[in-house]
Amino acid sequence: MREITYTEAVREALSEAMREDSNVFIMGEDIGVYGGAFGVTRGMIEEFGPERIRHTPISESAIAGAAVGAAITGMRPIFELQFSDFITIALDQMVNQAAKIHYMYGGNVSIPLVMRTPGGSGTGAAAQHSQSLENWTAHIPGLIVIQPSTAYDAKGLLHSAIANNNPVMFYEHKLCYRTKGDVPEGKYFIPIGVADIKRQGKDISVVATSYMVHKALEAAEILAKEGIDIEIVDPRTLVPLDKKTIVDSVKKTGRALIVTEAVKRSGFSSELAAVISEEESFDYLDHPVVRLAGAETPIPYEPNLEKLAVPQVNDIVEACRKIMAVK
Amino acid sequence: MSISIKNKANLDDAALIEAYRKMCLIRLFEEKVDYFFAKGMIHGTTHLCVGEEASAVGSGIVLRNSDWITATHRGHGQTIAKGTDINKMMAELFGKTSGTNKGKGGSMHIAEIETGNLGANGVVGGGYPIACGAALTAQMKHTDQVCLCYAGDGSTNEGSFHESLNMASIWKLPVVFFIENNQYGMSGPIKDMAMVKDLSIRSVSYGMPGITIDGNNLIEVINATFDAVERARKGEGPTLIEAKTYRWKGHSKSDAKKYRTREEEDMWKTERDPIANFKAELIKAKILTEAQDVEIQTKAAETIEAAVAFAEAGIKPNADQLMTDIYAA
Ligand SMILES: Cc1ncc(C[n+]2csc(CCOP(=O)(O)OP(=O)(O)O)c2C)c(N)n1
Ligand SMILES: [Mg+2]
């Protein structure tokens, strides 16, 4: 199989879906000749033209709302929110409109739209361009929330997102864009709501999301040398959540470490911890559930502080050692 | 006091030389930042305002120390013009505790409340309502302060622009909306993103005066801002100024500039350089000589070097500072 970047994988899914279905189109700031702030749509305006790769004004509320209106009338819009932080401006259309219209209208209309947006820190973009706010949408009934960590997952899940008849919030990560992985050519689907075991292990179930999956994989190599064998569970979709895979893993290992970049308090890590505690996995726990997550601070600019604000490989290593030290 | 170049603010020759010096200083500051950025010595991202110096200085010079500005992500020139400490600005970019924001904000968030700089903004259009709020303080406390709100052409398509102009207008808030129309919002040409020839036309919807000016002509900027600030100070309400200008550099750190031509860039750089053109005006008015200009350039370069030295001498925040300043005492 070929290796391509996460960016290329996302672009491939977009292009394949657009070639197949003329109802699929994209709106977003600078997605035309510029190719998007992170280069995801690079080259697409050349293939699909400005009608379907629609370079919008800087108007997040109108972009999101236009996607809703197009979706309920027969199109399958995708919009790129340049930074996930600007969900603050698009949120009314997602939360009060997109999420509820199907329900409020008695199930008589569907809203097949996808919002794609990069989240996360690590690029020095500071407090207003580095947040991980995916949990805001995960809280809202009616929205589907996906957070792929690898190129393979990104492509397969994006195809599923585009084919889905609900509003799907698709959170990419700036640091994932340059990661590479084996990705099949052509269309394939990864079902929404199915977690993936990124590494088999017997000692601790490390449930990690988005870029934290990569950090956990690195940590696993270090820990393996010390005889600690971690299992890495990547939920991939936050809503709906594949509780079974997580619960089964914890039943096997008896220990759970949750790693997310988002701020710990009221973040998705809280939800994951609650699921493990509520389900039958609770009876198998040899150690309290541990969470590693973003510090409860805005993301600082200075690079060392920025790193301290979110879990790093070494934090995962340390947390696992500590868990294993308890007999 | 002699006034060789007529202007509404009655700035004398010395003040205009000072304005010229500030424009030069801003350009050197930006060139230096560009250089450090390319060398990887400055982290994150920066949005440089080379080519837009007259807009910042011509508007900033009309303000009093006690007045306020809200700045944009492309705000180094705006903040320098308002009087923000240039040493602390450079230290901020270097991520030092001696920076304006203790190293926590970076280029997009430079703020210095004591000099009236209410902060640059990473959110496009984020400053409009904040400027209204500052103006509201002035109005409610019966001070005669004015808030000048900088914004880019692209930001005028955000809802916050429209909501804020309306609010400022109905409440007659002492605010001046100053749009630096550098023709592009990132890669979006404003001519494709708005169907009005001049953005100042949008003022009509909100019942306030609007004016489009050559933002690269220092005197024009001074005159328009002076009128708007006077009007605001007298309690007559807001004004929308659109200053047409051009950014010489890319939008931010990585920009192949595919959305515009090199010929267009060259035209602005050669024919409409705000600094070169104002220098020619000063020389023509016989208030500046080439020798004096060399001295100004040398001193400005020294000021920048001193800022770099100040920044380098600073210390990085330590781990204890991660959890400080999150809530006020
Ligand atoms: C709400 C929001 N949307 C998008 C962005 C990304 N972005 C940063 S600057 C910029 C262009 C702004 O254009 P303009 O207002 O003309 O200012 P200029 O950069 O030209 O000075 C964009 C799209 C942002 N920072 N905030
Ligand atoms: Mg602009």
What topology does this entry show?
The complex is a heterodimer of chains A (327) and B (329).
Chain A: E1 2-5, H1 6-20, E2 24-28, H2 44-48, E3 53-55, H3 60-71, E4 76-80, H4 87-104, E5 114-119, H5 134-138, E6 144-146, H6 151-163, E7 168-173, E8 180-183, E9 196-199, E10 204-208, H7 211-225, E11 230-234, E12 237-239, H8 243-253, E13 256-263, H9 268-278, E14 290-294, H10 303-308, H11 313-325
Parallel strand pairs in A: 2-3, 2-4, 4-5, 5-7, 6-7, 10-11, 10-13, 13-14
Antiparallel strand pairs in A: 1-8, 6-12, 9-11
Chain B: H1 13-38, H2 53-60, E1 68-70, H3 76-82, H4 86-93, H5 127-140, E2 147-152, H6 159-170, E3 175-181, E4 184-185, E5 188-189, H7 190-193, E6 210-214, H8 218-233, E7 239-244, H9 262-271, H10 274-284, H11 290-313
Parallel strand pairs in B: 1-2, 2-3, 3-7, 6-7
Antiparallel strand pairs in B: 4-5
Helix pairs in contact in B: 1-2, 1-3, 1-10, 1-11, 2-3, 2-8, 4-11, 5-6
Thiamine diphosphate (TPP) sits between chains B (47, 72-74, 122-124, 152-155, 180, 182, 184-186, 251) and A (29, 58, 60, 82, 86, 89).
In oligomeric terms, what are we looking at?
A: heterodimer
Shape of chain B: globular
Strand order of the largest sheet of chain B: 1-2-3-7-6
Report the CATH topology name of chain B. Answer: Rossmann fold
**Cα radius of gyration of chain A in angstroms:** 19 Å
Structural class of chain B: alpha/beta
At the fourth level of CATH, the homologous superfamily of the largest domain in chain A is Thiamin diphosphate (ThDP)-binding fold, Pyr/PP domains
Low-confidence parts of chain B: none
Helix content of chain B: 40-55%
- The amount of helix of chain A comes to 25-40%
Instruction: Report the end-to-end length of chain A measured between terminal Cα atoms.
Output: 44 Å
Radius of gyration of chain B: 19 Å
Strand content of chain B: 5-15%
What string gives the helices and strands of chain B in order? Answer: HHEHHHEHEEEHEHEHHH
**Overall number of strands of chain A:** 14
